[in-house]
Amino acid sequence: MAKIGWIDTHTHLVYHDQQHLQEHLEYAVHHGVSDVVAIALEKSEWLAHEKMKLLSPHLRIHTTLGGHPAEVFKWSEERFNAFMKQLSSVDIVAVGEIGLDFYWDKDHHELQKQRFIAQIELANERKLPILVHCRDAFEACLKILQNHPPKYHGIMHCYSGSKEMALEFLKVGMDISLAGPLTFKNAITPKEVADIVPLDRLHIETDAPYLTPHPFRGKRNHTGYVHYVGEELSRIKNMNESDVKNQLALNFQRIFTKKIDKFLRVC
């Protein structure tokens, strides 16, 4: 059975610096990362991630596919329908990232909602969890999840909302994932969320190449830096890193159990 380490539940490997990708994956392994969830927003990205599985034999790469809310509203009905056909057949561990983004798009909120709901329903049909992007749309996102519950649960990726709203998302079966901002010295809200949400409902991620954690803030992020997020979470929870790592592994297995073989050994 394979050993488990830190798990990056959300990274965009195709957007990493490809010239140094293998070096970054080896860095991740060296710093205790065992698994990453590679997010694809197009089938071509999913195919690229499938090929990347061969680059680092000691790092397990799990792939997803989903229509990003900041892009999917731009698609024609024909293109969206074609994408949904792809989404219904590819071998993935989750549908995502999907959701709502009212920061980048001010004019197509209803279309975003429709396409978010369509992807939730497809995930339910495929018995898959969802990975949700939500920016400046927390009330609307929560309402959709209440009315169209994800039957196989999911994760609020790179959560940036309030601690009160985080507890509401827990009620509809969504876990909370925290990224690099948790490590920022002036980031009060993420630390409050990390403190109030039970550890058995939390995950960590990089969202690389974005949101680089301290002490590399301002530089390009990569999946190997997820250990900084895990270390900060351990500090906030006042727990040793091994215990936090073990619980995060159990959380990961619970969310993705329908598609990931039960090879995880908590160590």
Which runs of at least 5 residues are low in confidence (pLDDT < 50)? 262-267
Query: What percentage of residues falls in helices of 4 or more residues?
Result: 40-55%
Topology as a string of helices (H) and strands (E): EEHEHEHHEHEHEHEHEHHE
The tally of helices reads 10
Which sequence of strands runs across the widest sheet? 5-6-7-8-9
- Oligomeric assembly: single chain
Q: How many angstroms separate the termini?
A: 11 Å
**Radius of gyration over alpha carbons?**
17 Å
Shape: globular
Total strands: the figure is 10
Structural class, from helix and strand content?
Answer: alpha/beta
The percentage of residues in β strands lies in 15-25%
Characterize the biggest β-sheet. 5 strands, parallel
Mean pLDDT: 94
How would you describe this protein?
By secondary structure, this protein is α/β, with parallel strands linked by helices. Helices cover 41% and strands 16% of the residues. The longest helix has 18 residues. It is globular and about 45 Å long. The termini are close together.
Layout: helices, strands, pairs:
Elements: E1 2-3, E2 6-11, H1 21-30, E3 33-38, H2 43-52, E4 60-63, H3 69-72, H4 77-87, E5 95-101, H5 109-126, E6 130-135, H6 138-147, E7 154-156, H7 163-171, E8 174-178, H8 188-196, E9 202-204, H9 226-237, H10 241-256, E10 264-265
Parallel strand pairs: 1-10, 2-3, 3-4, 5-6, 6-7, 7-8, 8-9
Helix pairs in contact: 7-8
